[in-house]
Amino acid sequence: MPRIVKSADDRRNEILDGAQALFFERGYERTTVNDVIAKVGISKGGFYHHFSAKEDLLEGITARLAQDAVARVRDILDDPALGALERLNAFLARSRQMKREDAPKLRAAFDVIFRPENLLLYHRINAASIAVMRPVLTRIIVEGTAEGVFAVPEPEAAADVILHIGASTHDIMARTIAASGTAEEDAAIEELDRRLHFYGIAVDRILGLPDGSVPFVEPGFTRAVMTAR
Amino acid sequence: MPRIVKSADDRRNEILDGAQALFFERGYERTTVNDVIAKVGISKGGFYHHFSAKEDLLEGITARLAQDAVARVRDILDDPALGALERLNAFLARSRQMKREDAPKLRAAFDVIFRPENLLLYHRINAASIAVMRPVLTRIIVEGTAEGVFAVPEPEAAADVILHIGASTHDIMARTIAASGTAEEDAAIEELDRRLHFYGIAVDRILGLPDGSVPFVEPGFTRAVMTAR
DNA sequence: TCTTGACGACCGACCGTCGGTCTGTAATAT
DNA sequence: ATATTACAGACCGACGGTCGGTCGTCAAGA
Asked: How far is the CA of A37 from the C1' of C18 (A)?
């Protein structure tokens, strides 16, 4: 085979791109290192020159995804005109907007990520996003507590709890996706929507706010994302 | 090798016992099927006669553990004399008592379960215990809402959230265990204790109770469990 | 009581796959 | 010219899982 040399960064990202595509298509375990190098057009030796193990791919991919996600809300986080509650709601609104925008891609990824055999992949993505969001959310809570809007004794712990509440959607999400195309799809989406609505209430309460202050979903959001093609 | 024949149930439990011991000692991935059959004193064929895959061991073990755990609190769950809040607190108190009783074994298991490479093992155990506890906790919340003591619009969702809050302790637990034996051990335990205390408050708020109604920890509990030998 | 035969528990050699290593080489930098 | 980096690809050992066959058990028929 002809030898193609590229800069380390470019090659690394190429590998990450290929791996990410495969992971979101077949899952982590069902994707072999040989699959990845075949897709990227690279040799085994080349791969292991850039990554010391298959697991490193997960780290690289999830780190990139998380960095990305936070970059897209940076302006909201840095806007000095916003109060804590406004900032939090603007952040959540932006997140929803982004999800709506690439709902089809997201939905396709969900199909794979929420399969039981891909638990590890899901968990890593989740852990990475929590790690990135924790300091962000903590800052907002500290801010809100200083403003006297929130009433939270342990901001960092509260941030952790709130972020993990998102993880508790896993099961219902999985169920909803499994029900996709069947007669129960509609009911499953309804239930998921009710759940997400309640999670907003849980956040309100943890922050010491009146119910409904921090909406997690807006009308039609859940259905729009879950039925996207 | 001499052939030893036993009833399917006995053999199955023997295999589960051996596998559980190994998983809690070396973790799931680092335990091979050959390790298990060597420990139990059985052949490869024998093993696959009772289990269709290595993963089935996880299911079997976690199911057993979860069944066990719920059996040990059955009396509290069934006691008609208890109100919902009393029942919930009695349940948590019993759980703590059980943890204190076999703190050394628990602590040893923690050492393995919270290592990053054993994420799958941890997750399965957690998922199984949540699956078992969900209906139990849901019932308590429904009861409490009917009594007018709790104020929860979606009992099942609330149960899910509360159970998942426990999962958010994973990171700090892992950190605390990693700090074991170092100079930071003391500070890590303090922080873990503060976190657990806050989780109690989060539960109070989700249930619509005044802060401090549902204590997650009692003084000295965290240290007692985490420093057990 | 003894034989027979079916069934299920069990054996262990074997296999394919997969993550990872190693030796070597072409391209690039110094 | 030389060192370093980026890559190639044959190879390896370990592991999960399979498969054809064996042996203990027990019940029915002679």
From this structure: 13
